[in-house]
Amino acid sequence: MALEWVVLGYAAGAEAIMVLLLTLPGLDGLRKGLIAVTRNLLKPFLSVVPFCLFLLMDIYWKYETRPSCQGDTCTPSEHLRHQKSIMKTQRNALLIAAALLFYWLLYSVTALVVKLEQLNQRIERLKSHSD
Q: CA separation (Å) from 114 to 7, 16, 33, 91?
């Protein structure tokens, strides 16, 4: 199952980089190309949502079927393995939340940047008509 988490990590990283590039000031020359690339990638990145739901169900299933290790019923190595499993689960849940949050941010920021570009073009047309 490690491959799924690597893929999700790369997807979240790519989304974060695109959000960062769209919001950085001073990249006006590249902005049109970034907007076009980001708009074309939004649909394929939408697959992150059902993928995250699948991984969330996997976490839940592992949580429900995990043997409990409380008190004196387990050895120190079993207790350590149990604690590591809990930490991995928490890390993976954070990764799922980050991937979904970055997708939502990317979608929202792209929509705002497109709207801003359209409004700037409208202002330029109004200026040219008034001259």
A: 28, 18, 12, 34
